[in-house]
Structures are given as structure tokens and as C-alpha cells.
Amino acid sequence: MNGAEALVSSLIQARVDVCFTNPGTSEMHVVAALDRITGMRCVLGLFEGVVSGAADGYARMTGRPACTLLHLGPGLANGLANFHNAYRAQVPIVSIVGQHALTHLHHDAPLTADIEGLARPYSKWLRTSRTASEVGRDAIEAQIASQTAPHGIATLIVPADVAWTEAGDAVAKAVSVPKPPMPSSKALERAARMLRSGVPTVLLMAGSGLYGKGLKAAGTIAGATKAKLLAPYPITRLERGAGLPPVERMPYILDQAVALLAGFPQIILAGARIPVSYFAYPGKNPVPVPAGCEIHCLATEAEDCAGALEALASLLSAEKSEPSTEPQNIPAVPSGGDLTTVNAAQAIGALLPENAIVVDESMTSGRSLMPATKGCSPHDYLTNTGGSIGIAMPLAVGAAVASPDRRLLCLSADGSGMYTMQGLWTMARESLKVTTIVFANREYAVLKREFSGLGVGNPGDRAKNMFEIGRPDIDWVSLAQGMGVPATRATSVDVFVKALQQGLETDGPTLIEIPL
Amino acid sequence: MNGAEALVSSLIQARVDVCFTNPGTSEMHVVAALDRITGMRCVLGLFEGVVSGAADGYARMTGRPACTLLHLGPGLANGLANFHNAYRAQVPIVSIVGQHALTHLHHDAPLTADIEGLARPYSKWLRTSRTASEVGRDAIEAQIASQTAPHGIATLIVPADVAWTEAGDAVAKAVSVPKPPMPSSKALERAARMLRSGVPTVLLMAGSGLYGKGLKAAGTIAGATKAKLLAPYPITRLERGAGLPPVERMPYILDQAVALLAGFPQIILAGARIPVSYFAYPGKNPVPVPAGCEIHCLATEAEDCAGALEALASLLSAEKSEPSTEPQNIPAVPSGGDLTTVNAAQAIGALLPENAIVVDESMTSGRSLMPATKGCSPHDYLTNTGGSIGIAMPLAVGAAVASPDRRLLCLSADGSGMYTMQGLWTMARESLKVTTIVFANREYAVLKREFSGLGVGNPGDRAKNMFEIGRPDIDWVSLAQGMGVPATRATSVDVFVKALQQGLETDGPTLIEIPL
A164 and chain B: CB distance < 8 Å anywhere? Predict the structure, then answer.
């Protein structure tokens, strides 16, 4: 057994059994180990941004890390933007990065780079394996680090000679993942007092507060106390739909966030941070919290958020009240007329299948989506968490690999989609049940809005050239077909409804372009 | 005048007048300045790998830096892989990266990242501007640093509030770029002695030794001394073709490099490093230099390589001999039959127009290209310099922007092409005269070869799944058309010849897919 085999066997033993990858020569011994040892599903991405984003999607749906296997500094570099998003999503990932043989490094060959330096900004744990006998143990430490709250990316750099050297029987045993600690009773009691006070209170949740038992507890708390349930604008995973607790998403636009929070003198944070706008604007306070608002942290990101919500519900005897739930409200299937972002959202709400997973990076074109889908069949809702565009298709790949029995709806803006469209190819190769909708407004609409919002006037020709991505228009039907994904361009409601229905029944990926 | 305007005006004054970009909200004041101030050509890439690779291509052809303007940590991250190549190419680039307002950083908003950490591995100069009154001077320092030998990437991080704050009249004056120093007379004399000795000698050149007056001097030295002229496998820019000094490229494969150098007891390095294989192989010496070989460094990367070659030629009175030149040898235009990598290379050699620029990332499919083109019309030849795949289309974009009167031939492997195919869109938008040829062998052929070469046997199904990029086959004609580039699939010699002829006459980009 060589180091590569010890690495792969150790990971499989620890249930890290999916590998999203784009390997290179320095990873060949790891590839050979993956080839020989049964138990790791390998999924190829034709660009590393697909690989890192897919690992994010997988982790969001399973709570467990996939591993990624990337080629030296440049391979890691290409994966970093979606690792930025994964870092912000606080999901567990074991990022394995190949390195030159340790004996080769001093030659400074063309692919040599400061891999640790590149990995550090997004790694909660970072190590270069030094010997074949230790690489298995390193892998287990990486896996445990990734799954210790707050979850994150553990980067293990594996030199080629560590991989190829005889390791003896150096498979490391899996160890149990530490449970996140509960918050103090003081923190729980303060939250209970605030909620009992009758003062309008926001319960702003993230992490495990937004699905499963954490969300259920939040629903009982809201039912008992009239607390307003909110999620941050960036959402790692939110369960929503008819019968589930209604959680409103913070708006992206600062003024709207200020307006939403204006009536609440109390905010309780459960796994969430104090809200702040994505960007600074001259002369504006980026924190949309009203003056004098009492902010209390019930559970930090490092604590058991779902457990805290359950304990809080229990302290409040909230189970005696009717839980707060979203009423069923499935829009009618629209028909006739031109397709708009509004009736497209209505059609999605009407047709979204039970237990679907919605990946939403539709940006400005998707404003109607959350209202149109809030009362429809229960589903999971995943968004861009770090603001690094180009996550939708990769995230859908990973979520689909994690959830083979569920339908994926992947909503992408055209500007974002162009970043990592290679994800479509992986959907086709793996026959993933993903229906991708590209909203093609042919501009970076956010930037146009921000340009004016920043008080620099209206964009002139040179600025417009940086915001408008038509000239030439991008033909998403051709792009998708070029990567093996059947595609349709929908300009009318009826064409869209039919394409969406067909897509949701197809045993593999499809794409619908909506020219706006 | 605000900081952004001081920045842009200072750069323009220093002849940094092309900006490859994909900006975001934090860069809006810089965009507004680019909009208002005349003199900077802005070229949009729909993915940052296009932006960074284009800046590389521009610098290779002009010797001057373009600037890049990228959005925060993630935008920079997406550009890093081609910055890796640019770093290895030792080309000057002024990399401007937006940053949150300094007042916004402590909020740790979703897009916050350690930008300096991400930039450091590839930056020879790195600074975050602190005030609006200093950002212009910072830009000039960055430009000078990028153009001080060895050239490199100077990264200037510009916080949004530095950009939007009043700067007074803070345009910084251009200063002259320092000339690289000449090597010592001792170094020159030792090289002259070695060449006069009659011992077979290699002159291994890089940087300014491979074009212009440096190359011309090398040709006279070779004519006078029979020195063998070599270039490293990674080539930033090589002038070649009929009438120019014949420079052979080091082979990628280690055993072939060993064989090439075996007959040479002396190697003189002019701007080049001691050759080393890209990767380590168990039990093999990665340095292909024969035992006992005398290696002398005539000029380091920080010295004036072209000047050193001219001085050496003069020391040797080489101008009295006939310079070594490549005889004209233009292949006949092939006709009839199936298209192969061999007759495709022959057609390229036959049809390559005078003064073309050839960008070559054709990988294993391009083995016949250099022999078939060495005696054809003089041209510049640019390759991947850092081993990070996905440089061809971006490099062609930048070289074409730098050289509007020249024809570009962009040769890409399919695996490499999938990394940054968004470059095709920029070619279409800017009507660049680039004919792209994609060699579609539907596999990472290098990896298949390396897998076996590393002694791990033949790849099984799982390994093959990581090397073979068919299933589904990628349709490059659809991809290109989807981004506004007219495209043809050539399966016969005649179709290829016709498509190539047409492409080379089109006033804009075209693409030819060669399925292999």
C-alpha cells in the first residue's frame, strides 16, 4: 500500500466517498488509487470551479464532506472562487491538492507555486503531508476539522512522492465527529425573556436553523411568540414551502433591509451574524439594524443552532401553541402571452415538484421567484453565499449527486452562468436530473443599478461596454447543446411551461433559455 | 478629481492604456473614471481567466503592461491560474484589484477575503492603496515594478473609499523604466571562451533572447561558432520562420530532453534557467543535463539578455561569419483524404500568413506543428509558459488587441480550451482576427501517457473516466457559435484547408474543430 492508497482508503472509511476532481500528472498516483480501490465515486469537472462548487452543493445536502482533488497551485486557484462561496456557506469539504514531489520543489519547475499561500485564505485547516505513513491520518484530521462547527474547508496538500511511497498498512481509522456545543443556559434564558416580552422580535437564523429540526423548532417558537423568522440574504440551505415555517429572506438592497428591520427593537441571532450590506456606499450605514435595537446572540456559528432552537422552544413551552406554517398557495399554471420574469416565476411555482431542490443564482431576474414559490410544494432552496458569481451550475451538480432521487431546478443569470458553464457538461455526463433556466437579460444588471446607486451618474458608452454582455448575444441553446444538454429557447409562456414540464420529467439535464 | 480618476489618469500618462476587465460593485468608481477619462481601451472578459490571460498576451507582444481590473478576492482568484502563466512568462502586468471600502472591512461582508494573501504568490510587487492622494503614485510604482527586469505582475489593491474620495490634483507623473543591467564582462568573456573552444555548446535562451535584436545576435553567434540555439519548452515569445535563426524547442518529455542535450558538454544560459522536467518521476533525475556538463549563466532573468547576446556576438566578431538562418521551406497545401494532426500541421505551415502570431496550446495534438512551420513565413510563436491549461484563447485575445494588423492563429487542445472558452466571446465582441483551431481528441491525452509513464499500470474504468472527456462529446462548433464566433467542423483535409483559408481572410474570429 502506497501513500495514495492509504489516503483514499482512510477517506472512504470516514464516509468521504465522493470525489469531485480534475486531476493532473502530480495526482496520478491518487488517481491510480481511486482506480484500484472500490468505494469512492469520482465525478469529473472540466474546470475546477465546477469541482469546488459541486463539493459545496454536495455538503449542503448531506452535511458531510465530499473530497475534491485538484492539480497543484493553478488547479486550486481555479477552484478558489467557489471555495470562497463554500467558505461563506460554512460547509465541510476535504480539499486535496496535489503537490510536486518534495524532492522536485527546489527546481522551481513551471507548475511550482505557493500552494499553501493560495489555500490559506479559505482553509480552516491546512497541512502538507510529509510522509506516506502519515497521509491517512492527515486525511482523517482534515475530515474531522471540516466537520467541526463551524464547518469549513480542510485543505490537505499531498506531494507526489508522499503518494507514491510505500506506506505499510497506514489506513487511518475513522473517529467520531465532535458535536457542536450548546449555548449557555444564560443565552437561552435571555432569548426566552426577549420573546416573552411582547416586543416585536426578529429571529434571524442560519446554518441548521433553516432546515430539519432546527427549522421546525423555529416554527413552534414563531407560533408561540409571533417572532418574525428571517434568513440572511445568502442562504446555504433553507427548507420552505407549504406547511413549513415561513422564513423571509433579508433583501439584498440596503434600503429595503433597513425598512424590513425598522419595526423590530429586538433581534435574536441563531447561527446568523449581524446583517450588513454586501458593499459600502458613501455616507450610508451598512448595518440595516434600527438604532437602539437589542441584539442577542442565541447561538454562534460554532454552537448547535438547531439544538439551541429546540431548547428555546422547550423553555417557552412553545409546543403548546400552533406552530407557524406557510399556507399552501400554488400559483395557477400561466398560459398565453409573452414570457416575463413574473409569469416565469409563476410557472415555476405552479410546476415545482414535491421535494425539489432549487438552486437560485438568478440575480436581478429572480425577484419574483421567492414570493411565487413560498406556498408551493416543500423544497430546499440554495443560493450563492459568498457573492462570487458562477455557483449555480456547479452547486446543482453537487446537490444532484448528493440527492439522486430529487429533482433539481437550477436558476442562473446569464452573466453568472458564463463563469462556470462547464458544469452543464458534468450534468450531462452524470445524467443528473437538473433543469437549468438561464435568464438572459444580456447585462450585468446589478452593476448598472449599483453604478447609479453610487451617485456617479448614468453610465456612458465605455461603462456600458463593461455592463452589457450582448454584442454578440450569447446563445445558451447552442452552449448547452455543445456540452450535451438538450435545450430550448422560451420566448412565450406556453413554450416555457411545456419546456419546464418536459425538463422536470426528463431523466437527465435540460436547459431553458429565457431571453429578456 | 477622486482617487479613481487619479488612478486612471496616472496609468494613461505612463502608457498603460489598455484595461482588460470584469469589474464589480466595489470597482464602480474606477469604471466611472474609465468612462469619463479618454485614453484607456477597456476590453471585457466574461470570466477573469480571460482577463488575466489577455493581459499576458498583450504584454508578450508589446513589452508593456496592460492593466487588469478585477472584482475583490473572488475576481482575482478566477484570474490567478493565468496569472500563474504570466508570472512564469515574466511579463509586465499592472493588476488592479478592487477592495471593499476600508471602513467596510471589519464587517466581514460576504465578499470580504484576504486579497493580499491571494495575490501574494504571483505578485512581484503588492500594495493596498491607503489614500486617494497616493493611489496615482502607487499606480506608477506598480507600473515601474512590473517593467523592472525580471518583468512581473504588480498588484495594486484599491479600496472603494480610496477610489471615491477627493484626491485633489493627484495625477502622478510617469517616470522612466529602468534598463536591465548588463552582465559582467567576466560572464561575457567566459561565454566567449566556451564558444571558441570548439566543444559542442548549447545556447539556451529565453526572454529577449528569442526575438528582435537578441535573436538576431544569437543567429550571428550560431553562425560563427556552431552553437546550438535552444529555447525552453515554455516559450513566452519566439520569432521563427524562414530567414530567422533556427531555435529548437526543448522537448516536454524528459527522456527526449536528455537525448537532445546528451551531445553537449557545455550549456550557456541567456535569460533561461537550467532545464528541469515539469514533473518528478520515481527514480529519475529531472534535470536532463549530461553529467559533467559545464553550465554557465551569461545573463540572468534580471539582466539584459538581448544586450548580452549582442555584446557576446561582438566579442566573438561573429558579424564576420554568415549568420545561421532557417531556410525557407513552405509545405505544399495538402489535399484529399482524412484530416490528421500531421496533414493539419502541413496545411497550417502552407497557409500561415507573413507576420502571423501563433498561439500554441495544442498539447499532444500539436507535435507536428513546429517541424511543419519552422521554414514557413516568419511569425511569432507563443506557448503556455506555466503549465496551467486554458491560456490559448485568452492569450490570443491579448496578442490580437496588441497587434491589430496581424493575423492570429490560436491552437488549442479541447481539454485546455474548455477552461477559458469564454475568450471566444471577447474575440467576437472586439472583432479580433483570430482563427482558433481546436484539436478535439476528447481526452486529457497527457494524463493517459503520464499514468502509464509513472509505472502505475494501465488505467481502469474509474481512471479513464477522469482522462476521457467524451461522453458527452463536446461540440465546439456549437460552443463557438453560441458565443458569436462562426465555426466549422473539419473532418477532411479539403474542408480544413478551405476553412483555414477563409478564417485567415475573415475580418474577425472564426473557429475550426478538428475531431481526432
Answer: yes
Chain A contacts in chain B segment 459-478 (CB below 8 A) = 459-463, 465-466, 469, 471-478
Work out whether the CA dihedral B300, B303, B309, B314 comes out positive or negative.
Answer: negative
**Grid-cell match 480534475, residue found:** A22
Chain A touched by B1 (CB under 8 Å):
no
- Widest Cα–Cα separation across chain A: 70
A460-A461-A464 Cα angle (round to 5)? 85
CB neighbours of B43 closer than 8 A, spacing ≥ 6?
B18, B19, B20, B21, B54, B397, B401, B426, B430
Q: Please, what is the end-to-end C-alpha distance for chain B in angstroms?
A: 57
Burial A496-513 (b: 16+ CB within 10 A, else e): bbebbeebbeeebbbbbb
Confirm whether the ipTM is greater than 0.95: yes
Cell numbers standing for residue B18: 489598455
Residue B418, classified by CB atoms within 10 Å of its CB into exposed (0-12), middle (13-18) or buried (19+), is buried
Helix axes B185-196, B212-225, angle to 10 degrees: 40
Report the alpha-carbon distance of residue A109 to residue A107 in Å, rounded.
5
Q: How many CB atoms lie within 10 A of CB A251?
A: 17
Exposed (0-12), middle (13-18) or buried (19+): which is A57, by Cβ within 10 Å? buried
- Grid cell 463557438 is found at B480
Q: Which of A104, A110, A450 sits opposite B28 (nearest CB)?
A: A450
Report residue B285 as a C-alpha cell: 533525475
Q: Touching check for B385 and chain A: CB below 8 Å?
A: yes
Cα angle B294, B295, B296; round to 5: 120
Ramachandran region of residue A180, left (φ > 0), alpha (ψ -120 to 50) or beta?
beta
Q: Is residue A179 within 8 Å of A299, Cβ to Cβ?
A: no
A440 shares contact with chain B (CB less than 8 Å): no
Let me know if B291 is exposed, middle or buried by CB neighbors in 10 A (0-12, 13-18, 19+): exposed
Q: How far apart are the first and last CA of chain A?
A: 57
Query: How many angstroms away from the CA of A479 is the closest CA of chain B?
Result: 5
Can you give the pLDDT of all 516 residues of chain A as single tens digits? 999 999 999 999 999 999 999 999 999 999 999 999 999 999 999 999 999 999 999 999 999 999 999 999 999 999 999 999 999 999 999 999 999 999 999 999 999 999 999 999 999 999 999 999 999 999 999 999 999 999 999 999 999 999 999 999 899 999 999 999 999 999 999 999 999 999 999 999 999 999 999 999 999 999 999 999 999 999 999 999 999 999 999 999 999 999 999 999 999 999 999 999 999 999 999 999 999 999 999 999 999 999 999 999 999 999 999 999 999 999 999 999 999 999 999 999 999 999 999 999 999 899 999 999 999 999 999 999 999 999 999 999 999 999 999 999 999 999 999 999 999 999 999 999 999 999 999 999 999 888 888 877 889 999 999 999 999 999 999 999 999 999 999 999 999 999 999 999 999 999 999 999
